[in-house]
Amino acid sequence: MWRGFVAALFAAVMAVGVAAPARADTWNPPANLVTPLNQVWQHVESTYGDLYGFRNYGWDQLFANKGYLNFCVRWDSPQPVTAQQRDAVHAQLARQYKKWMDAMAGHNNFPYASVPIKVVGWAVRDRNQLQWTDNSVDIYVNDIRENAPQCSEGCGRFFNRGGTYPRCPGGVPRHYDQSLWLTSGFGGGAGGDWGQRIGSEYFMGNLNSADVHIFLHEVGHTFGLDDFYDWTPSGVDRFIMKAGSSTVITEFDKWMLRDFWRHLKNRYGF
């Protein structure tokens, strides 16, 4: 819900993304999508309270980092997590996020051909739930916010909009831009600039699925895309941002994402 992204070369890619060649400033959606896209943007402009003033969309986070996004997992569940499950969560998170970012690669001066996604921390009520001993991620124990384990606020972008993290022990490299909040028994999902919240059972049961559609829907909100509970644009009826109508990101979803970029890209100098 919106209301309420050679060895030395490889290392550089993982740190800051891959800069794509600049393209001409173009806007060329398929003819059949022009009208519904215009309707969507008119609706966004008339219903978002601070559309152009808000400064923590997924876009803002991405550009503050110069091309990557960091995550922290809020493990809001009594179940244990093995190292193998942890790594599978990280991998699936990156695969799903890539589906949205691939829609932007090479489009209308978007500068990143890829957007590395890294999980830097896990928050949990009881350290014994996390069944690994390595230090690959920071671990936050029994720091409770919203009746759920919370990653350090000092390291969170949501709590530190200036791009520096003076209260984060690991500094900028260990900060997190978004939380993947996995809650036992949670139905549906929620998403915004803070991250995405979905059921832990749902996400863990879909670690090998091609499309984790509730998560994909919520990532759309992180980048500003709207819900469509009470209306549908002309000529389209099945797309992932219309909850329950599609389990995959459609061409219309991709063009809505590109349209959001089109209207905000000047703030990043494009």
Automatic annotation (TrEMBL):
UniProt keywords, alphabetically: Signal
SUPFAM superfamilies, A to Z: Metalloproteases ('zincins'), catalytic domain
Source species, domain of life: Bacteria
Segment forming the signal sequence: 1-24
Protein name (record): Cellulose-binding protein
Species of origin: Lentzea aerocolonigenes
